[in-house]
Amino acid sequence: MVDVLERVGLDASALDRHPRAFSGGQRQRIAIARALVVKPRLLVCDEPVSALDVSVQAQVLNLLADMRTELGLSILFIAHDLAVVRYLCDRLVVLKDGRAVESGTRDEIYGSPRHPYTQALLEAVPRLDPAGERARRAVRQGRRAA
């Protein structure tokens, strides 16, 4: 168990601490370690970083990406945060009301979404460059930017 804790970035002293002594990010690492102990081929992650601040989200996402590569894990990653999904996932399935409306590679979905719901989701993502994004959106829609 100590080797798995160390693999997720915690030391052996974590074994002797109570749950209340851990931060949210550390608790998430413990949950990942618990899942890895049984050497799974598939890891199901349902909103694994939604309650974490951005820097801790990045650490957990990098950990998952590393585990995927090092251990040959497949990860079923369920999330509402499209930036997080874009970072971690190779293939996506977009659900609306519990039904799949679109699926494809990350580049297919983000580069040229086909379903109106997917398009609306992607349009709702905040951008750092709103003017540039409006211009790109206008080009995608076949008109000139204002």
Automatic annotation (TrEMBL):
Record Gene3D superfamilies: P-loop containing nucleotide triphosphate hydrolases (3.40.50.300)
Source organism, top-level taxon: Bacteria
Domain Oligopeptide/dipeptide ABC transporter C-terminal: 101-135
Keywords tagged on the record: ATP-binding, Nucleotide-binding, Transport
InterPro entries: ABC_transp_ATP-bind (IPR050319), ABC_transporter-like_ATP-bd (IPR003439), Oligopep_ABC_C (IPR013563), P-loop_NTPase (IPR027417)
Domain ABC transporter residue range list: 4-49
Pfam entry (one): oligo_HPY
ATP-binding keyword on record: yes
Positions in coiled-coil regions: none
Keyword Transport listed: yes
Record-stated family: Belongs to the ABC transporter superfamily.
Protein name as it appears in the record: Uncharacterized protein
Species annotation: Luteimicrobium album
High-level lineage: Bacteria, Bacillati, Actinomycetota, Actinomycetes, Micrococcales
